[in-house]
Amino acid sequence: AVHMPVSGSFGAYARKYISPSTGYMISWMYWLTWTATLGTEFTAAALLMQEWFPQISMWIWTLIFAVTIFGLNISSTRVFAESEFWLALVKVITVIAFIVLGLLAIFGLIPFHGAQTAPFFSNLTAQGWFPHGFLPIFTTMLIVNFAFSGTELIGVAAGETKDPAQNVPKAINAAIWRLLIFFVGTIIVISALLPFQLAGLG
Hints:
By secondary structure, the chain is mainly α. The chain contains eight helices and no strands. The termini are far apart.
């Protein structure tokens, strides 16, 4: 019998309620999702490091990050959790600083390169809300949806959480607010500061 929630999460639930083969497939597909995500993240991290150290090959940085992450994963849970906490804190502080500085620039409290007056939110509506229609929105969503993998870890962690009935709903609510502030907040700041023609991958 499967007592819920369990560590196997949706793989275990599919195995119990649909079929063993479906549970098997879902578990391996989930593994593949994270394998692909880690590959892209190692590449992105290596690209960032190359900005600072152009003479060092991207492959070296990719290997350094891969070995570091692997080392943290095979170490004790405490070391892994502590490192996750501090590394996530760096990201959170950086994003908050970005949003605060961006808002100061939007309202003209600090100078912004290329802007003589405070840009406010004029760039958001200068060409209409969807200058190229709805199709690019859907295309973009297909590309960026993988970046939201991680939110489902609340469901995975539920099987190993003390008092999941109380803590899981709290975690879900916190995740929604963080997504709104960090993801939507940064998008609004970038969209307000840059005309959409300039807001490319560069």
